[in-house]
Amino acid sequence: MSSPNKDSYETMLAVVQAFHDKHDFKNTGGEEMTYRIALMAEELGEISECVTKGKPVAELAEEVADLMILLMGTAIAQDFDLKQAFWDKMDKLQARESRMIDGRIRVSEFRNS
Q1: Of 74, 20, 19, 17, which Cα lies nearest the Cα of 43?
Q2: Within 13 Å, how many C-alpha atoms sit on residue 22's CB side?
Q3: What is the pLDDT of residues 45-55, one digit of tens each?
Q4: What whole-number distance in Å separates Cα of residue 19 and Cα of residue 89?
Q5: Phi, psi at residue 107, to the nearest 5°?
Q6: What global pTM score does this model have?
Q7: Phi/psi of residue 104, each to 5°?
């Protein structure tokens, strides 16, 4: 049997699905959205801590990976195609203009006030 293609989004998604199945997230509250949002907020806090406390990039990478796994799991829990959502959003972002705001670049849907 050949080894899985670790560069494939589909392989990554299948591994996250297997993790959900292993722990029966669907039937044990692991796919409940309020809980998932709390977990994502916790991971963002850990990412922030890595940056603000100057922790090694390896620790930052681990926390970002945690968030990515949670995002992929959210797509599983809510039954949407995250890869398609990514490409749809990138198309929108690519069409937007950017502005400098307080010395930093911002790409957003700017509304005229």
Answers
A1: 74
A2: 6
A3: 999 999 999 99
A4: 27
A5: -115, 110
A6: 0.87
A7: -130, 145
